[in-house]
Structure formats: structure tokens, C-alpha cells
Amino acid sequence: MTEKMKKWLAPAAVLLVLLAVYFSVKGMNLSGLPEYAEVLQVEITSANKADEVVKLTEQNKIRQSVNAAGLLVYNFGKAPEETPIITIRYFLRDGTTQTVAVSQNTVSYKEKTYKLKNRSDSFVQIVETVFFEQQATPQPQ
Fold this sequence. Notes:
This protein has helices spanning 3-26, 59-69, 121-136; strands spanning 28-29, 39-46, 52-56, 73-78, 86-92, 97-102, 106-109, 112-116. By secondary structure, the protein is an alpha+beta fold. It has an eight-stranded antiparallel beta sheet with strand order 1-4-8-7-6-5-2-3. The longest helix has 24 residues, at 3-26.
């Protein structure tokens, strides 16, 4: 090992340990979500709303749905899959589909299930308020 490598080895190890501690305490935001410009349509279902399906095609609503999923924070490691309360399906312009399924304690995305850092109550309430209740409110003419 060269002297230059030895000089940087200890700080690099300390940095890795600090990052591991930080992410184990704070959790990780759900990443790898599609860019809103790549999304053609979004379908959101809620088990609390009798599996009503909300379809979004407006760019500002699509952006809100992607941003909402980005609020989810999970812990490292896998978790057992649970029945979803909220399911968000992103239909992309290239013909593929990505699904985010959120249960009380887990989030499933890209065929992996993670334990949420906090229960999903707030997330479920935000999604139902923003997407389901606004859909039911008649627009002024």
C-alpha cells in the first residue's frame, strides 16, 4: 500500500461509518422514482376508498404524485410484504409501468419491500386528501 493510500484510508473508513450511522438513524427516501416528464398517466387506488381508482394525466398532478412517493422513508433491509393501503402506478412514455405499494408498515417498489421508518398514516392521509377528495370536489364553472 502506498503512503498516499494510507493517508486517505482512515478518513474514508470514518466517512463510511458515519454514513452508515446516519442512514440507519434517518432512513432512506424512496429513490429511483420516474421523472414526472417520463410519466404519461398515474393511477392511484386506496383500500380506504373502496378501491376507487383515480387517474391522473395533468402534468402538475403527475408531478404531485411523484413528489408524494418521494416522501416515503424506509430502513435498510427487506421486510415481509403486506396488503397495500395505497397503490400508485406510473405508466411511463416508454410503455413500462412502475408501482409503489404502501401498507401500514412497508413500501414495495421495484419488486422489493422495505420497512417504513414511520407508519404510513400521514402519507395515506396526504394522498387521500390531495388526490381523492380533490377529485370529488366539483370545479367552479
